[in-house]
Amino acid sequence: MYGAGTKTRTRGSNIGINNRPQSKGEPEKNLWSSLLNGVASGKKLPEKNLLVLGGNAEHQRDFLETLDSDTSRRPQDRRRKKPPVANEFALGYTYQDVLDADQDDILARLSIYLLSESSPTFSALVKPLLTPKTIPETLVVILLDWADPWSWGRQLRDWVRFLKGILVSLDDGCKVVAEETMKEWQQRRRGATYEGASAATNDHAVNIPLGPGEWDDPLGLPICVACHGTEKIEALERDHGWREEEFDFALQYLRTVLLKHGSSLVFTSLSVPNSLPTLIHSSLGIHSLLKRQTLKHNVIDRDKVLVPPNWDSWGKIRVLREGFDVEGISSGWNVDIQLPPKPHPPQHSAEDANAASPSPSPPIRPFQRPPSPPLEGSVLSTYEANIPNPYKDRPSTFPPIGEHSS
Known about the structure:
The protein is of the alpha/beta class and 406 residues long. 36% of the residues lie in helices and 11% in strands. It has 15 helices and 7 strands. The protein starts with a helix and ends in a 20-residue tail after the last helix.
């Protein structure tokens, strides 16, 4: 230790470290140094990663506000300065410290990365975040918004393709860890609290086989889909005539396709308390040392829907409303999420290179891709037929639900 070394030099070089006499207080000093070093090493925070995909900058900030909300916080904690959120360009970043129930101890540091565009171009920004060390500590959140539920099918398809494209491009070491992570998640079976059963229970746990449609297509990372802004549901009913049929179909569709990826589902709002913090923290293995948190499923209250991981099944999805083709939707989703073939560079002859172009091609605006044509067997058209866009083909611009022009 540094203190002991300094003391040796002041006594002279003729007295060795091993044979010099020790003062009466020196063992006590060494004991205290050892204790302090142990405390210092124990204070190192667990590091977790959250990758938020989707939403614009404002929607992402609302989501982060909901994630950081806690009604049990003391007034002085609520006034604590929050870290800045840099999410205006490309890959954004911020962080949150997860506090224990007493608001005194920090349980983990949550690094949050934010991406709005699902273009494959941005996969190069996300791929370096996934290493054999970080993959087991990472959760992906796909952010949807109640301002445009008619876009959910297409948005979800694009983000799943985005993740699949990254997964196939990882090196072998990352792929092995990703596969092991998915196997571990599949083994978290239904029936126990999400934090896991006790050690005695786990010793005698029964490995329940997967049901139809469950974990058909793991994406290498645990997934949570958050449909944010449930306060806009009232506008859907008032302005667009939404009824129980539309709400039930959207929920059944989401639950069916997310079941294939082992994803959880939560509806959130800034104005209504919800289970988002508990779901995210539990999914990342962050648990309070003082208060046991459990996740209670809810598929009845449309503004408080919660489907924990490994809870859902085809049977439970059918119960919500008769006539929903769960098998057809599950099968067709496999077609929708197929990665599109990579375009081949055009072959130009010498004559083409020397030929004069009659008029220059207009520049392609960034981030605007033409919609992919429907594939044979696709169910995306089924979703969009049941949840039609009320603004489709309208020439004039329109404000999103929940926002009004002055």
